[in-house]
From TrEMBL:
Residues 510-530, 548-571 are annotated as: Disordered. PROSITE patterns: IG_LIKE, LRR. Pfam families: Ig_3, LRR_8. It comes from Poecilia formosa. The keyword Nucleotidyltransferase does not apply. Residues 1-20 form the signal peptide. This is Leucine-rich repeat, immunoglobulin-like and transmembrane domains 2. The chain crosses the membrane at residues 469-490. The keyword DNA damage does not apply. It comes from the Eukaryota. Keywords: Disulfide bond, Immunoglobulin domain, Leucine-rich repeat, Membrane, Repeat, Signal, Transmembrane, Transmembrane helix.
């Protein structure tokens, strides 16, 4: 009987822990000590995500090498007693802004060896008691000014072995604990001060003017704020790489100022030339040369440092030719602003008296009647772009002239285009207006086949809603000629007037064909075929967005009858 009672007591004792503590997770171990119950999961790839069935009585969680990538919203909301959370050496890249929700008792968070590029610092509003934050060996490259605002009780912050390059001193000046220490020092209070450990070493610090505030802040630190490693090292720019913070003196940032030794230069044909410009700025600016509207890439360009804040750029132009004359501009840009300076180059040659105001002289008689194929390349909301092709003997020396204005105007705006450029864009067009654009060689006047006539729409509001200003249908009037004699472009808002022009053109050509020989008859037949095809294109969108227009039924019936005759002749 005594033996049975003894066995019953033993069974009850063994059963008690089972009722008090839930089972541990598979692949993990659970330890109970005077600090509470701990969950330790160190098995490689034990979980693909943070388990959602964590025991609710845990005070410490340590999950490492599981390679999950995210801390989702409320991941630990069922374990409110957790004080220590270690998630080292996983592949965490994202922390939800509510990923720490429910961890009001958390005092230690370690995220070493993950892949974090940024941290939602507002998430620490849910951890008011956090004292230790370990983020070393991640990929953090930015620290916003408000980052430490939500960590009032933090006494250990490790940001070492990340990719930080530039941070502002305001990051630490906005830290409530730092402000508290500063206020205590001002009041001469020295009692019961807790040391604060800060680790910032082994980052890619870029020691230019943008880091001036941090360098000064580091130099001013004293206990109770302690740097784990006070020898912070510069990674760039190159002339400061490897230097310690305490060895450098940084200046305030400034916008670029660009200058050139000479603003005008004249050299004989065939000379070798090197253009120079000086760009003074903090931080270092990006510097490039432009010629006309294009960034220069064909010539050799190099840069060298003259002083801590000045860069000299060299542009080498070998064996000057007539096509090299013009304005060369050196431009420098940094995050504060930009600046530029220009050099006007004149190339002196035997026939320079024939040059046109800084543009190369005529290349020869062969270019005077050159074929130029011009077309509309694309349409935009408020403009068009054209492209052209010219069969030239010396394309690297040939300039073009764009003539643009309203159709019928004697004087048109002229734009000179340098060698190698074969496109041009026009914007801010006026609605319901007929324009003409021509492409010619150098200073020549436009000839048939070098121009395009187009008409803009009348309803700007509708076209803006549809993100179309110009609906282009190109009607080729003489495709059999070596050089096209012109093109019309009609919009959907001018369908009926444009259609009438096509019909009238067809009638005129029919009358001409009746009194001409077989060659003209064939020409008329071709034009009729083309007119019928393009009339169909003009009316293609008519059924899709029909608009009410005040026109008589007789005019419409007449138009349809002409269309029928054209279609019948086509077939």
């Amino acid at each position: 009987m005594d033996t049975m009672i003894y066995l019953l007591v033993v069974m009850l004792i063994k059963a008690e822990p089972c009722r008090s503590y839930p089972r541990c997770l598979s692949g993990c171990s659970c330890i109970d000590d005077r600090h509470g119950r701990s969950l330790i999961c160190m098995e490689e790839s034990a979980f693909g995500a943070i388990p959602d069935n964590l025991p609710d009585d845990l005070t410490k969680i340590r999950i490492e090498k599981s390679h999950f990538t995210e801390i989702p919203r409320g991941a630990f909301s069922k374990t409110p007693a957790v004080e220590n959370l270690w998630l080292n050496f996983n592949d965490i890249t994202v922390i939800n802004s509510k990923g720490l929700e429910g961890l009001g008792n958390l005092t230690e968070l370690r995220l070493q060896g993950n892949k974090l590029r940024s941290v939602p610092w507002t998430a620490f509003e849910d951890t008011p008691n956090l004292k230790i934050l370990d983020l070393k060996h991640n990929q953090l490259d930015v620290l916003p000014e408000h980052a430490l605002k939500f960590l009032p009780g933090l006494t250990y912050l490790d940001l070492s072995f990340n990719q930080l390059t530039v941070i502002s001193k305001e990051v630490f000046q906005n830290w409530p604990l730092y402000q508290k220490i500063q206020n205590a020092e001002e009041r001469d209070v020295t009692a019961s001060r807790t040391n604060v450990v800060l680790a910032l070493h082994d980052n890619a610090w870029l020691c230019d003017c943008r880091l001036k505030g941090l360098v000064e802040f580091i130099a001013s630190l004293s206990p109770p704020i302690i740097l784990m490693n006070s020898y912070l090292t510069c990674s760039g720019p190159d002339f400061r790489a490897g230097k310690f913070f305490h060895e450098i003196e940084l200046q305030a940032c400034t916008k670029p100022v660009v200058s050139t030794p000479k603003a005008n230069m004249s050299l004989p044909l065939g000379s070798n030339l090197t253009l120079h410009c000086y760009a003074k700025a903090r931080p270092d600016p990006a510097v490039w040369w432009t010629y006309g509207l294009k960034i220069i890439r064909g010539f050799h360009e190099s840069q060298e440092r003259v002083s801590d804040d000045t860069i000299r750029s060299h542009l080498v132009i070998p064996s000057l030719s007539a096509a090299d004359r013009g304005v060369y501009t050196c431009t420098a840009v940094n995050f504060i602003g930009n600046s530029s300076a220009s050099v006007l180059l004149d190339v002196i040659s035997a026939d320079s008296r024939d040059d046109i105001a800084g543009f190369p002289a005529a290349s020869g008689v062969a270019d005077q009647n050159v074929f130029i194929d011009i077309r509309i390349a694309k349409q935009t909301v408020r403009g068009i772009s054209i492209e052209w092709f010219a069969a030239l003997e010396r394309p690297s020396e040939t300039w073009f002239t764009i003539h643009f204005g309203q159709a019928g105007d004697d004087k048109k705006e002229m734009t000179y285009i340098g060698p190698g450029i074969h496109s041009y864009s026009i914007s801010d067009l006026i609605p319901a207006t007929k324009y003409e654009i021509c492409v010619t060689l150098k200073n020549q006047m436009p000839r048939p086949g070098q121009c395009i006539v187009f008409v803009t729409g009348t309803d700007i509001t509708e076209m803006e809603q549809r993100e179309k200003l110009i609906h282009i249908v190109v009607i080729v009037l003489a495709m059999v000629l070596a050089v096209p004699i012109g093109m019309y472009v009609c919009t959907t808002d001018t369908r009926i007037p444009c259609y009438e022009v096509i019909v009238e053109s067809w009638k005129r050509r029919q009358r001409e064909s009746n009194s001409s020989g077989m060659e003209q008859e064939r020409h008329g037949t071709f034009d009729s075929l083309q007119a019928a095809s393009d009339e169909e294109l003009v009316n293609k969108d008519f059924n899709e967005d029909r608009k009410v227009r005040r026109r008589s039924e007789d005019r419409l019936r007449k138009g349809r009858a002409d269309q029928s005759r054209l279609t019948a002749e086509l077939y």
